[in-house]
Amino acid sequence: MPWLVLGLWVGVLAIVGPFAAKLSEVQHDRITDYLPANADSTQVARIQDQLPGGETTQLVLVYHRDGGLTPTDKVTAAEQVDRIAGAHVLTAAPKGVPSADGATLMYPVSSNEPGTDEKKRDALVHDVREVAHSDGGLSVEVGGPGALATDAAEVYDSLGGPLLYTTVAVVAVLLILIYRSPVLWLLPLVVAGIADYLSMGVAYGLNHAFGTTVSGQSSAIMTILVFGAGTDYALLLVSRYREELRHVERPYDAMAAALRGCGPAVLASSGTVAVGVLCLLAADLNSSRSMGPLGTVGVLCALVAMLTLLPAILVLLGRRVFWPLVPAYGSTPKVRRLSLFAAMGSSAGRRPLVVLAGGAVLLGVLALGVLNLPGPVKEEDAFVKKPEAVTAMQTLARAYPDQGTQPITVITPAGQADRTLTTIRATDGVGDAQKGRTGKGSTGAGWTEIDVFAKDAPQSAAETATIERLRTELKGSYVGGPSAQQIDLVDTNARDVWVVVPIVLLSVLLILIALLRSLVAPLMLVVAVIAVWGASLGIGGLVFGPLFGFEGTDPGLGLLSFVFLVALGVDYGIFLMHRMREEALRGAEPVAAALTALRTTGGVIASAGLVLAATFAVLTNMGLVQLVELGFVIAVGVLLDTFLVRTYLVTSASVALGRRVWWPGALSRGSDPDAVRPERQPETV
After folding, report:
1. Strand pairing partners for 553?
2. What pTM does this model have?
3. Share of the chain above pLDDT 90, in %
4. Separation of alpha carbons 42 and 496, rounded Å
5. What is each CA distance from 478 to 45, 416, 455, 481, in whole angstroms?
C-alpha cells in the first residue's frame, strides 16, 4: 500500500507539474485585481480598457533642485521630455508646471501605448526612467499611477523566491529543534514542498477553468498556509505515530492506529481553515475574495499530502526514521518529574476561575491597543522601503502643497460630457478639469473620460471631500483614479467585515458542534479566538507606529487577520478538545480529562504554534506594509493562542465547567454510548 501511494503521487505530480510552473504567467497585480468589485473606481478602470487605445498609463516627471532650478535645468528637462515624446506615443504633448518657489518642475505624461499589458507598462516606465535621469545637482524622479503600479509589481515579483526560501529555512530550523533527528525533520518539509507545488498547479487550473484571480498577495498567502498548516498536521500525526509505535509492533499497523486517532481532529482542523478562508468569497473586495479559493486550495493540498504521502514515507522508512530517539515496541516514554505542560495544567486546575479571570483581563487590556492603530495607509506609505514613485509623490506634495498633482478620473456618458464638465468645474474643491488624454476627450463604447484636478493634495481629507461631492453631484457617471480607489478600498473593507465575519463564525461553529457534539465547548473556543484576534490587533496598534514607523494601517488587516486567526486558532482548540473528549469517552473524570489532554497535546500544540507563527512572521520581512502588518498580527495571535489561551484559559474553563462543557451531549450527563475504557496510559508529548 505505501508503494502504491507513492506511485499515485508520482503520477499526480507528473500531470500537475507543467501547470504549476505556469502559475506566475497568470498572476496579475493590476489595480482591478485589488479594487472592490462594484465600486465606482473599478467601473472607471474597466471602462478605460474599452476607450480608444485602452487603459492609459499616467506618469509624472519631477525635476527638482534645492535652491531653485537653473535655466540649464529647464532646458535639460525639456530635452528629456522631447526624447520621450519622440520614442513613445503620448496622448497629449507634455506641458511643464513650475512650482511657486521655482525649485520644482513637473511634466504630466500619459500614454495608451501599453494598454492593459503589464509588461509593456513596465517597459515604458523603465524606458522613461532611463531617459529622465538625474544630472549633477538636478534630481529627476518618475512618479504617477503608472510608475507606482510598476514599483508595486516589482515588489510582488520579488516575493516568490525570498518568501519560499525563507519559509523553508525557518520551518527547517524549528523542525530540527523539535525532532532532534538528522532525518525526521526533512520529511514534513519535503512533503510540504510537494504540497505547495501541487497547490500551484491546482491554482493554475482554477484560473483557467473559472477565471479565479491570482495576485501576488494571494499566492504568497497560499504558500504560507501550505507550509504552516501542513507542518502542523505533520506534527500531530508524527506525535501520535510515535506514541502508537510503542504499543504496536508493525509500523503499518501503528500508522493505521495513528490515523484513526488523530485523523478526525486533522480533518476537522483543515476543514475549519478551508471553510473559514473560503468564506472570503463573500467579500466584495477583489483582493480579499481571491484569497478564498487559493487559501482553500493550499490547506486542502497540505491535508492530502500529510495524510497520504507522509504516512507512506514514514511506514516505508520504519522506526529508524526517529533515530536517535527510536520508539521501541513495548517501551515506555521517559517520564519527566514535572513537564512544563503538566505544571501549567496543575496551576490552571487548582484555581481555574482565577486563571480564567486574569487571562480575560490581560486580553482585554491588550485589545485596547486597537485605539492606537493608525488610519488607513496611503499609497505613498504602502512600501517598507520607498521606491522612486513614492519619493516623487512626496516631492510633489512638498512643492505643490495647495494643488492637486494626481488626476481624478471621471467617466461619463458621451452624450452628456459637456454638461458633466460644466458641473465638475462648478464643484467646490475642483481646481481644473478637461476632457481626458488629448484635451478633446477620449470617447468610446458610449463613454467619455474627463481628467479632474483637485485644489488639494492627493489623499488629503480635503481631496476626499471633493471626490465625495463629485460622486454626489454626478448622477450616472463614475468617479475613479488613485485617490478614489483608496476611498473605495476603505469603504468596501468596512462592508466586508459586517458580511464575512458572521459567515465565518457560523461556519466554524457548525464544524465544531459536529466534531465535539456539544454547544458549550464550540462556543468557548469561538469566544477564545475572538479574544485572541482583538488582543493581537491591539498589540499591532502599540507597535506599528511607535516601533515600525508605519504611517497607516492596511484597510483589509482587520478582516483578513480575523479570518486567518479564527480559522487557524480553532485548529489548536480542536487538537486539545478532541483529545479531552477521547479521555472523557475512556471514563476519565472532567478534571483528569482536561489535564491529561493538555499534558499529551501541549507539546504538539506548542510546536505547531511556533511553526505556524514563524511561517507568518516571514511576511514581516517582505517589502509591503500590508503584508508586514498581516504577518505580524497573525504571528502574535498564534503565539497568544498557543501559550496563553489553549494552555491556560481553555483548560481552566474546561475544569471550571466540568461535564457541562459537553452540554447537551451524553458526556455532559456522565455517559456516552461510544465510551470506552483506556487500554493504556497516553504518552506525554
Report:
1. 376
2. 0.82
3. 24
4. 16
5. 10, 13, 20, 10
